[in-house]
Amino acid sequence: MSKTRIFFNEVATRDGFQIEPEFIPTGTKVALVDALSGCGYAKIEVTSFTSPKAIPMLRDAEEVMGRIRRAPGVEYTVLVPNVRGAERALESKADELNLVMSTSETHNLANLRMPRDKSFASLSEVVRVVAGRTPINVSLSCAFGCPMEGDVPQHEVLAWGQRFADLGVRGLTICDTTGMAQPAQVARLCDEAQRRFPGLQLTLHFHNTRGMGLANVLAAVQSGIVRFDGSLGGLGGCPYAPGASGNIASEDAIHMLDAMGYDTGMDMDRLLRVARELPAIVGHEVPGQVAKAGPITQLHPVPAAVTELRAALSL
Amino acid sequence: MSKTRIFFNEVATRDGFQIEPEFIPTGTKVALVDALSGCGYAKIEVTSFTSPKAIPMLRDAEEVMGRIRRAPGVEYTVLVPNVRGAERALESKADELNLVMSTSETHNLANLRMPRDKSFASLSEVVRVVAGRTPINVSLSCAFGCPMEGDVPQHEVLAWGQRFADLGVRGLTICDTTGMAQPAQVARLCDEAQRRFPGLQLTLHFHNTRGMGLANVLAAVQSGIVRFDGSLGGLGGCPYAPGASGNIASEDAIHMLDAMGYDTGMDMDRLLRVARELPAIVGHEVPGQVAKAGPITQLHPVPAAVTELRAALSL
């Protein structure tokens, strides 16, 4: 039996960097994307074509996109908030445009400062403008719950997905934006989303805010999902939970799926080397665990005391 | 359909405290066990009747056992390394004795300084001495891999379990001592252990060293396992992986299973209050996530900017 292929999208340089307080130099961003390009990712979300005033960290989007080396087989995607951003993204030769809105009205108002209907209208306009020139993915935030509203009904999440499917987008990313998903809920939504959208690329985006990140990845792969977002080192905290983790660490999720026998296509040694450079890049520790503990395949030396004991006991 | 009942065993005051560098005062230990007794645990591993020289932290085992208030419905279990420890444990009126040996020869030599056969002979003697006066549980270390040897074959783990089952012990705890288990392996071993030992209480003990702790809990409950060890706050690091997490945080695992609809019997609010006292007790941060982020049921206030925006837009 051939192994199931899993496709990872690395979001550290966009979703992860976005909330870092200190500007990360353009050259460092380019070097990190280039290093990630050699690790086996299916996709890298490089940056965001948003207003430089809104997110100063990503004000160098054009320069980063212009300077990275494009590796064959890797898609370079970018976040795009509106038509202006889409035009900049097309000019930068992004392989995919990622649009985002929230399935929670309150979260959309808090995050994008407009009601969901207005977001949908604005993003529909982006889809029309792009008109088949570049594939479009739509990330639906708070699909497993809103930190302010609480439950977001599954049928509402699916209805928003349907509206974008009807516009002809290539994929949907179902996002657990603040780490509220639990595995039983993940299984239900993944089952139903795959039934409803058999022609779309479905990606799951989990946070580890309450420790359930990899349990939710497990529930999703068990349901048949093969595409995941991850953020190297678990970069990207959660503004609603100071001290808690944000995004799942790509390397931890990939390490688990590799160990389970999935074909992630990733070079784990190389990935861990890159992950171990992150604390120096961002100036603080990061939550990823495998970079600290080493993969399960990396054994520890037998202590001298054991060797002596074996000799003494003639074992 | 009635909810599946899950039984949690809290090991923070034994397994967690054991590796803390600063002695924790006896009164603090007693107060913590008493606080845990009110949280809904099925079992609490209070302390260890080992040599005070081997583990100075737990040199007050008798006093702690004598001073705790026994809550009805909670079993107070203790770790016992040998016949001398068993006699002390029986004297202290422990509800259960927990014996431990490793399924890996190298790990047993490193940790217990004797080969597995000698550990088995010594623990068999304990079972004979206790002779039905108190139930006995046996914890099998490294059941999902040894940090020095690597793979530990499933049939070997089951064979060690069988030898103890033949002696008439009440339960087996299958331990992922250094966080090497992955969910597919957990499902296989749990399936087979339940088939082989239908009459035994089977408990799973996971570490979160590589971020897979709750994914492994999920795989185990999916297989039908209903008993878990957990350590409040995730107390108890891993000597083989500095900086990495050790035991799964009880409150994170319980929070996930509660959210999924299992009946853990736990009072989550009370449990989180106790978990939030841990950093002051041990003098450092602990890995547990839910105590920092709050449970998924705890919503955040709607920001004033959203309320103003709603008013301005007549939403």
UniProtKB/TrEMBL annotation, chains A, B:
Pfam family, one: HMGL-like
Annotated GO biological process: ketone body biosynthetic process; L-leucine catabolic process
Presence of the UniProt keyword Metal-binding in the record: yes
PROSITE patterns in the cross-refs: PYR_CT
Highest taxon in the source lineage: Bacteria
InterPro entries on file: Aldolase_TIM, HMGL, PYR_CT
Stretches assigned to the Pyruvate carboxyltransferase domain: 6-272
Signal sequence, start to end: none
Family, similarity comment: Belongs to the HMG-CoA lyase family.
Protein's name according to its UniProt entry: Hydroxymethylglutaryl-CoA lyase
Organism: Ramlibacter agri
